[in-house]
């Protein structure tokens, strides 16, 4: 049986930031199966951070005894006018994303992972949900809610739709509606999770949701702090073909001797090493020969010194990523349901680009 300390080490490793560590340790000591919540808007193709990093994180959490509720935020995608505000298209994308996680190796055995559609859950338990939304809205001034939205300039705030004001109140309510002990979302969702903790202070609730925010992978181009679905060359997508992966990595920003803000090194740190527990570089003997790195610190040291060159790192990275993605490609080639979903989503995104 896993010790509380070991559970804490595994769960804590999921987050770049944890608010608060002592609360997390206390939760794992007292509750055998804590509830972790993660949500996503079905809004198009899935990039590798959402596909592989989420798979890694969910598998870590379930291995430590957590139950993970994945909130398929179809109504939220509608509020954000995703897929042209067409709920049927949004739900098709949602089903496609679940197929990817299954193919990528997310451990769905034993019911420790539950996919919940926001539209279904809210409609079936409206009497529970909407009073929480209204109470959160009642207790917060407009500027506080606006700060939880996307980063925007002062002039842009006057262009907000009512839906964009409503959205953070609903997202905050999700946490309590799902009875989440841990909010396991990206660093970009930190503000609304903090709003949930502040709401607990307002209503004098002692057990606050713990915020476990995971790292956000940068885009592959210089200066891209976040992957952009609108720019296909900024990210590896889960059903990219081998040649696509090789081409994107070959063209990625990867300055020699520079570790900081180097997207290729970030891919190795957050995807390849956690997946394989090693990173294998194949080189000619005169260039240093084959080397297997088992820690990011070792790899970063070699790269900074110039002992590992981008010309050797990039092919090794492409090869590792293609190994990770191959089961997903196979699934979408041979499973008729998955293939049909992918063709529909491909059609939606092609139509969106041409409009």
UniProtKB/TrEMBL annotation:
SUPFAM superfamilies: Nucleotidylyl transferase. It is found in: Cytoplasm, Cytosol. It comes from Ambrosia artemisiifolia. Its main location: cytoplasm. Gene3D superfamilies: HUPs. Catalyzes the attachment of tyrosine to tRNA(Tyr) in a two-step reaction: tyrosine is first activated by ATP to form Tyr-AMP and then transferred to the acceptor end of tRNA(Tyr). One of its GO terms (molecular function) is tyrosine-tRNA ligase activity. InterPro entries: aa-tRNA-synth_Ic (IPR002305), Rossmann-like_a/b/a_fold (IPR014729), Tyr-tRNA-ligase_arc/euk-type (IPR023617), Tyr-tRNA_synthase (IPR050489). PANTHER family: TYROSINE--TRNA LIGASE, CYTOPLASMIC, TYROSINE-TRNA LIGASE. The keyword Protein biosynthesis applies. Keywords: Aminoacyl-tRNA synthetase, ATP-binding, Cytoplasm, Ligase, Nucleotide-binding, Protein biosynthesis. Belongs to the class-I aminoacyl-tRNA synthetase family. This is tyrosine--tRNA ligase. Pfam families: tRNA-synt_1b. One of its GO terms (cellular component) is cytosol. Its EC number is 6.1.1.1. GO terms for biological process: tyrosyl-tRNA aminoacylation. It catalyses: tRNA(Tyr) + L-tyrosine + ATP = L-tyrosyl-tRNA(Tyr) + AMP + diphosphate + H(+).
């Amino acid at each position: 049986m896993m010790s509380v300390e070991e559970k804490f080490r595994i769960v804590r490793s999921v987050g770049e930031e944890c608010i608060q560590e002592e609360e997390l340790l206390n939760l794992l000591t007292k509750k055998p199966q804590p509830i972790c919540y993660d949500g996503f808007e079905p809004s198009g193709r899935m990039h590798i951070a959402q596909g592989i990093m989420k798979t890694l994180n969910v598998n870590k959490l379930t291995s430590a005894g957590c139950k993970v509720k994945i909130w398929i935020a179809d109504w939220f995608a509608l509020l954000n006018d995703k897929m042209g505000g067409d709920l049927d298209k949004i739900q098709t994308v949602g089903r496609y994303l679940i197929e990817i996680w299954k193919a990528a190796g997310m451990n769905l055995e034993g019911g420790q992972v539950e996919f919940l559609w926001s539209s279904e859950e809210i409609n079936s338990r409206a009497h529970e949900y909407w009073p929480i939304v209204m109470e959160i809205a009642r207790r917060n001034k407009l500027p506080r809610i606006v700060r939880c939205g996307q980063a925007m300039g002062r002039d842009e705030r006057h262009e907000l739709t009512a839906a964009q004001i409503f959205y953070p109140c609903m997202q905050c309510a999700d946490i309590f509606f799902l009875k989440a002990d841990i909010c396991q979302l990206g660093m970009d969702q930190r503000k609304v999770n903090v709003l949930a903790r502040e709401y607990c202070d307002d209503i004098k609730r002692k057990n606050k949701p713990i915020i476990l925010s995971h790292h956000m992978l940068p885009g592959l181009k210089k200066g891209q702090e976040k992957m952009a679905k609108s720019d296909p060359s900024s990210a590896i997508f889960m059903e990219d073909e081998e040649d696509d992966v090789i081409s994107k990595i070959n063209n990625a920003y990867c300055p020699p001797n520079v570790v900081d803000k180097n997207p290729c090194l970030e891919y190795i740190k957050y995807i390849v090493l956690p997946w394989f527990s090693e990173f294998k570089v194949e080189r000619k003997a005169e260039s240093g020969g084959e080397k297997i790195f088992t820690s990011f610190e070792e790899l970063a040291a070699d790269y900074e010194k110039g002992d590992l060159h981008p010309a050797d790192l990039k092919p090794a990275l492409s090869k590792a990523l293609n190994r990770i993605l191959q089961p997903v490609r196979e699934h979408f080639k041979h499973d008729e349901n998955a293939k049909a979903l992918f063709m529909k989503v491909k059609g939606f995104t092609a139509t969106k680009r041409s409009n």
